[in-house]
Amino acid sequence: MLMNRLLSKADTRRMLAKLEEMYPDAKCALNYSTPFELLVATILSAQCTDDRVNMVTERLFRKYNGPEDYAKVTPEVLQEDIKELGLYRAKAENIVKTSRILLERHRGQVPKTQEELMRLPGVGRKTANVVLSNAYGIPALAVDTHVQRVSNRIGIANSMNPEITEKQVCQRIPKRLWSKVHHILIHHGRRVCTARNPKCDMCPITEFCRFYRKLQSESDLREKVFNAKR
Fold this sequence. Notes:
This protein is mostly helical. The chain folds into 2 domains: 2-27 and 141-202, Endonuclease Iii, domain 2 (Orthogonal Bundle), CATH 1.10.1670.10; 35-135, Orthogonal Bundle (Endonuclease III, domain 1), CATH 1.10.340.30. Helix content is 61%, strand content 0%. The protein is built from 12 helices and no strands. The chain has helices spanning 9-22, 35-44, 50-63, 67-72, 75-82, 88-105, 114-117, 125-135, 145-154, 162-172, 178-191, 210-229. It is elongated.
């Protein structure tokens, strides 16, 4: 039961302070200059690395300036511009449809509410939160694979459901920190708390981490079994 207990709010604050020291410049890794460009980049980022998305959008954003340009082309044309990315056919269709909806219903502007964003093709809760927090400075915590993994390993969340993870993490930190914590957890997940072979030996927050305690317990158990067989 102890392993399922969430980290206290006080320990969560101390843990995050250590991570903030480690990643003082943590920010969105996608390149963009407008809310619409961020929306497009985030749609493209599904099951792709940010580096690869940035490589594609560098030329894409030179060719298409805004929703007006994307709305004029067919998904088949746009596919050729993004074919290096996974799921490029579905992404091209969603971007064209979204662009047309923005022009028809939002005067070409990207909405500033989660509800309106999530009505756009290809936009889920994570994408909506990325746009809100980074483009508009509205507090939101986007849960991607890194945030999901790191949050649950540390013990500030205890769910495989991203929406529940988001709720549990947000309950443990002040609203003003939601966006910053999103970036900090992503950086930690990419650099230290990796999916395979996490670098626990260089992690500054092992004293708080549920995953690390589990590894230590398993190591101690293996040592006891080994000694008992000697």
